[in-house]
Amino acid sequence: MPKLLIVASTGPQDPTRASIPFHIAANGAAPGGVESGIAFAGDAAELVKADVAANVRGVGIPPLQDLIQKCVTQGVSFYV
Question: Can you tell me whether residue 20 is helix, strand or coil?
């Protein structure tokens, strides 16, 4: 079990809020040495679909597809 579990509950209809959990895990927790995971609840479960993630671009943060790839590379766990 990860030491930090981030719950994602916003789907692609709000791209900035949907991307925040991935941004926290990929650019905050993992580089800081904190083992982390993301749990998907409700509409956020749509984000695991490749075609959905490819079209989610929040304001002021990298595209979701890039954040997901960075999470995978850094060993962040996903719980659907």
Answer: helix
